[in-house]
User: Fold this.
Amino acid sequence: MLPVLLASSLFLQTLGARGQPTPSATPAAELVVVMSAAIYQPDGAVMAETAQLPANGAGLIHMFARKSVCEPAIAGATEPSDAGFGWRINSQIVSRSEKEIVVSLDWKRLWDAGRKTANGPGGTVQLTLHPGDRIPLDHITNSSPKPECRAVGLGLDVRLARAATPTTTPASLIPLGATPGGAKPVDAELWLMHTLPSGTVQVLHQTVRVPAAGGQFGFASTAVETARGKLNVQMSGSIDRYRTPAGTEFLILSLSRLVTGEGLPANGVSSSTSSVQAMPSTPVDVLSFEIPGTVGRGGGGGRGGAGAARGGLVGNTGGTMVSVASGGGGAGAGSAGTGRSAADPQSGAATGGQRGAGGSGVAAGGRGGGVVSIAPLLEGHQFALRVRITQIN
Assistant:
């Protein structure tokens, strides 16, 4: 599973004005179709590998798992040689508007039970998708659960998401004398973790290539059932890259949360946060964003157990953790302290020493002068983001 968090010296700074942290009305973003290969666990937890289809025209991808359904992966048009379960998906965008996309999908199950099959399920469908839609296409049952993979099965579905929108890095986050751009492209592996009030965890996973100039990412929206009705929460962000005069590289990670649904403005409400991070020196370093307000760095250890994407992530380690509260006021001195810390990778909760930073908050007025706070809207649903940077050889 995901790594226990380690501490590092880091700095979190939220964007906005003084006052109670609140969201702002958000302009509409371009819609994108997302394919998902989801691992379903017996306790209701879900881990999904996601891939965005081309915004226009035709596309071809393979979504599959390797030795077990707990090892999902994605390949492009070239058929993978190590697939034991999975599908080929041909796509064609038929039409699009600001509110919906019509897509044609020709899908076929090519692998099952560790073998390639010529007679697997398949079909051709034309779907009209709206933001928040999730349409199941197929499900492969895990007929032989084992201790390393207890999943119920692996499902294929299609979703509609809003594309990540370009962000502008605040000048206040850029150290004096730093210049834009990194040394070479890197891969960013991202996990969006949704903890339900019941404690069940659902995870969306993706890997994006981040050029030297920086890049963007976005996740399909997550449905949240509340007393006021169904809401959809979508996370997107950017990774900007800079170098100091001494040649040291650092990242500025910006993250936005958009909430749409009943009783909210047509384009939803949003909040955002940004953090300056040193470029991780090894792929076991994992940055952790608790949303809102906490950031940490994890790492170390051996490979973990099954049930996580790509056959397991980094194992448990000890360390310290630095957290920064997303407060409602302006700059203020935080209390300092350090200590051994461990965090549950599912909930992101940390124990041990923490160090505060100057409080600042995300603040903006709602429409008509009203103020709406996102946290009460979500009624106990919590979100966290894990980011692992891998150098490309």
The chain has two domains: 5-26+164-391, 33-161. The chain has a mean pLDDT of 72.
